């Protein structure tokens, strides 16, 4: 059954692969034509000089001229860029796009959920959260804050083209039919809960924020929601949002708010944050990729963020909201194939990279770096997790599954309560006597 399923899909992916190849060859022709004068002048130009030139051009595309610049205490530079000049509008299909200044529609149950959250916050003493750069200023109306990409950021990537993208070999696991050895091969480990088998039009969660340690700069630790459509072949559609620590992407060990999207299983399309064309930001207060402050402490104050992703049934755009007050923006429906209709699976939880650099399991932490058994104040949690159903209402997910590759390294435990609705604790330390 599995094989037949894959076979049927392979035609679709062959066609989309062809389109991708065509597009890629067009764009590489364009870049080689642009780069021709430089390379003719000096035929002995070195590989690293080429990479510097590419990086320079890439930065010029990414970093739009700002109306105002704010220097964050964490070393980030936040550019306030005119909303109409953001990277999204480099996309040929967005040339005549009219920016949606607000969603037409919020899923039903959002208001109810808000009042519930306030009481949940009182009950658990978790506190609201902001971004560090707010200490140094704000972006004016009509602009959006964009974390400036530095030359070092681009040069750290394996190639300029791959900057801001996940590794294409990274296929998220497929809980019910995955082969365990295929998953460990990729080196990614998860501790997640998921629902599948229905049509989903969004998802929501409140996630407490930590600053997990990563052992190697090319490893990361993240906690997020996945909105998935299609199969786990070459054509997976995914919208992702949460927090992450990723030294390779950001050049430090701080915890950052992020989004991601792809419509071809992380191959040619999509990226983190605003690092490619596609996502349209409308909010002038929250910068994607900016560090989150403060973070939760072990046995200390707990800080959490809530994220809601949902589809506007009228326009077909997928929106994202941070907290109760910040609608960040939207992914136009045309970016996707399967997600143009609905998602087929929702996942919530943590993911790390285990590169086994010293032939032992990585010590990269997930969540708080502590196992779920330790509970509130010590372990990472997702609470009030919900899906948006076919009648555009927020609902508790039904038939929740849990998944982890090696529960002795990272684990997950779900539960239900009044204030927290459907919730789970997750995470772990990585290498330990039971996870050598
Ligand atoms: C944008 O509008 C111009 C002028 O109306 C039109 O020629 C062009 O085809 C449009 N482009 C797209 C991508 O819709
Ligand atoms: C990030 O953490 C690693 C250890 O996990 C450390 O070696 C490195 O210096 C840190 N990097 C920065 C920029 O703080």
From TrEMBL:
Signal peptide residues are: 1-33
State the residue spans of region: Disordered: 107-126
One Pfam entry name: Neprosin
Q: Which residues form a coiled coil?
A: none
Identification of the protein by name: Neprosin PEP catalytic domain-containing protein
The organism sits in which domain of life? Answer: Eukaryota
**Keywords for this entry?**
Signal
The Neprosin PEP catalytic domain covers: 182-436
Sequence ranges of Basic and acidic residues compositional bias: 108-117
């Amino acid at each position: 059954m599995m094989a037949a399923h894959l076979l049927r899909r392979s035609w679709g992916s062959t066609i989309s692969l062809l389109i991708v190849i065509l597009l890629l060859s067009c764009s590489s022709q364009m870049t080689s034509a642009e780069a021709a004068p430089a390379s003719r002048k000096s035929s002995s130009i070195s590989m690293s000089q080429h990479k510097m030139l590419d990086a320079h051009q890439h930065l010029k595309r990414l970093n739009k001229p700002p109306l105002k610049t704010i220097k964050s205490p964490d070393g980030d530079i936040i550019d306030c860029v005119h909303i109409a000049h953001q990277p999204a509008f480099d996309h040929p299909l967005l040339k005549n796009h009219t920016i949606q200044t607000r969603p037409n529609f919020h899923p039903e149950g959002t208001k109810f959920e808000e009042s519930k959250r306030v009481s949940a916050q009182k009950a658990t003493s978790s506190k609201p959260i902001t971004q560090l750069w707010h200490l140094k200023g704000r972006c004016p109306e009509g602009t959006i804050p964009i974390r400036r990409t530095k030359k070092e950021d681009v040069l750290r990537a394996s190639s300029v083209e791959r900057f801001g993208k996940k590794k294409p070999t990274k296929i998220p696991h497929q809980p019910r039919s995955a082969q365990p050895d295929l998953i460990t091969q990729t080196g990614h480990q998860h501790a997640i809960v998921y629902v599948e088998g229905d049509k989903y039009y969004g998802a929501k969660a409140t996630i407490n924020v930590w600053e997990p340690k990563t052992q190697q700069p090319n490893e990361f630790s993240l906690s997020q929601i996945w909105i998935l459509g299609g199969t786990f072949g070459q054509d997976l559609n995914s919208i992702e949002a949460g927090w992450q620590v990723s030294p390779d992407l950001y050049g430090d060990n701080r915890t950052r708010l992020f989004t991601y999207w792809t419509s071809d299983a992380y191959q040619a399309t999509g990226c983190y944050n605003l690092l490619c064309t596609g996502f349209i930001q409308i909010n002038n207060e929250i910068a994607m990729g900016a560090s989150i402050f403060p973070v939760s402490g072990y046995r200390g104050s707990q800080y959490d963020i809530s994220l809601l992703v949902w589809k506007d049934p009228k326009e077909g755009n997928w929106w994202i909201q941070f907290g109760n007050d910040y609608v960040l923006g939207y992914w136009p429906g045309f970016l996707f194939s399967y997600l143009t209709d609905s998602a087929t699976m929702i996942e919530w939880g943590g993911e790390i990279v285990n590169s086994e650099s010293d032939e032992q399991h990585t010590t990269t932490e997930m969540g708080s770096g502590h196992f779920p058994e330790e509970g509130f104040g010590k372990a990472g949690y997702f609470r009030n997790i919900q899906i948006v159903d076919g009648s555009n209402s927020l609902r508790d997910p039904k038939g929740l599954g849990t998944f982890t590759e090696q529960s002795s390294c990272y684990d997950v435990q779900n539960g239900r309560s009044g204030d927290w609705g459907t919730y789970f604790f997750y995470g772990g330390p990585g290498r330990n006597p039971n996870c050598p």
